Amino acid sequence: MLTIQNLHKAYQTHTVLDQVSLELPQGQVLAVLGRSGCGKTTLLKALAGLLTLDAGSINWAGESMDAVPSREREMVYLFQEPLLFPHLSVFENLAYGLRVRKEAEAQVQQKVVQMLQELELQEHAQKKPSHLSGGQRQRVAFGRAIIFLPRVLLLDEPFASLDAQSRASMQRLFLRLARKYNITALFVTHEVKEALLVGDRFAYMAAGKLQVYTSKDAFIADPQTGVRDELAFWSALEQQTTYQP
Amino acid sequence: MLRRILTAILITAILLPFLFFGVLSVGQAWFYPSILPQRFTLSNWQELLVGQSELQLSLLLSLLLGMGVAILATLAGFVISKEIARAKYKNRWLLLAYWPFVLSPVVLAILVQRFFLLTGMSGEVIGVLLGQFILAFPFAVIFFQSFWTYEILQMEQQSQTLGASAVYTLQQVLLPLAKPLLLICFFQTFLISWFEYGLTQFIGLGKIKTLTILVFKYVNEANIFHAALASLLLMLPPALLLWLNKKFVFRGI
User: Fold this and answer.
1) What is the mean pLDDT of residues B202-208?
2) Peptide bond preceding B37: is omega within 30 degrees of 0, i.e. cis?
3) Domain, as residue range, for B141
4) What is the CATH number of the domain that holds B100?
5) For residue A76, which residues of chain B lie inside 8 Å, CB to CB?
6) Which key words are in the record (chain A) (predicted)?
7) Any idea where the domains of chain A sit in the sequence?
8) Cβ separation of B161 and A70 shorter than 8 Å?
9) Chain A residues touching residue B154 (CB < 8 angstroms)
10) B252 pLDDT above the threshold of 50
11) How many domains does chain B contain in total?
């Protein structure tokens, strides 16, 4: 269980995280919806240990993560851009986390080959990232992050730069692998549909404050999330299309 | 056709000084209006290769200073440039790095002369090395700013969250990515040291005779055969580095 209590972060007089608290059971995905500049990235970077907090605590399975450096937290932050290592092949990019952990070569080979199959990238194993499409690069970045089964995956609008088709494909892939590997994740997005699709639990972030909902219905019912407006828009559009002569 | 002519002119322009100094370096007794020297001898070259001549010592000294300055400036520039790229007031620090070039090396030498006198480093190899480093280091800092982009810094953070230590990230990610730039910076800073005259003369008090200093000395003495040999030696390493640059560093770019 990931437990966050009263996280606070401010830059001079501007508060970016304001008493943020949440609990996330293992194997669940928390979809965090919010507009640009609401503090979502700061929250994820703080969890990954890439930012120092002014106050608050982060615990995993009862163990405090506050003093644990980012490389030992096992909480992988996935940037909006894939950030693959350009000098390494797809195979070596996927193997990176395993090599860092000094896993035996046979294990590395077996896990990477399996991950390549999961990502449907077998024929691209020896290619450099520059020879892949945007969607393929994002798949490699995702595979590289989950291959060593981290405690928590922190996804910062990971599919935002993809076209609609690749995005839908990535969402399906994420859901399939999240279930298969029992991934605990915070999935930040500004897209209502994506949040509803990937989340087991739901939260809304605005001006540094995080509102966690007890259910999907409660998330949809809250007018500030904008879910109802979006549903109403699509419903109206559907009716228009149906009754057109 | 035009391209071939231009290439031929370019190659001639590069090779002609080598040929000219090469002929002069093996010459002896050259009097007006003869086109070529009266006699040819390898004694100047023997002097360089055998025994401890002034020319041989200054060649070794120049190589030592060039390598020392290039290694120190490249390593320090790489590290400090990263800190500047991450700093809050990045532009202020960068402005400071431009300072030696705005002042000009000789004016800089006059300004720092007192420091070198007080520390007893004037007229010493270490003093000249430090003086040349004052020029090469800011160059390296400015040079590496193009490497430390936001994307590279994010990549470093990505490596950290994947579990890599700072050393592992440096070895497996940053150094392989920076390798071409590290080599170019090494070559450039070596050349800064190799051709440096004003600051070397001022801090070295004329006692530290690098190859560049020696060329000027021979020219002043009207010792054209030694001056030609020293000039030839002065031109060889940059030519070699340019060739290596073209062959290995820019390969695939």
Assistant:
1) 86
2) no
3) 56-249
4) 1.10.3720.10
5) 161-162
6) ATP-binding, Cell membrane, Ion transport, Iron, Iron transport, Membrane, Nucleotide-binding, Transport
7) 2-83+152-212
8) yes
9) 79, 81, 83
10) no
11) 1
Indicate the DSSP class of residue B247: I
- Residue A63's nearest CA partner among A178, A151, A184, A154 is A151
Tens-digit pLDDT profile for residues B221-244: 888 888 888 888 888 888 887 787
Residues 6+ apart with CB under 8 A from B149: B85
CA angle B34, B38, B39 (to 5 degrees): 155
Set of chain B residues whose Cβ sits within 8 Å of the Cβ of A97: 162-163
CATH of A2-83+152-212, one of 2.40.50.140, 3.40.50.300, 1.20.1250.20, 3.40.1010.10: 3.40.50.300
Residues A86-141: tens digit of each pLDDT: 999 999 999 999 999 999 999 999 999 999 998 889 999 999 999 998 889 999 99
ipTM of the complex: 0.87
Interface check B43 vs A, CB under 8 A: no
Q: Is residue B11 in some structural domain?
A: no
Q: Is A160 on the interface with B (CB under 8 A)?
A: no
Cα-Cα-Cα-Cα dihedral sign, residues B169, B171, B174, B177: negative
The average pLDDT across B197-225 equals: 86
Q: Which of A76, A85, A99 is the closest to B161 by Cβ?
A: A76
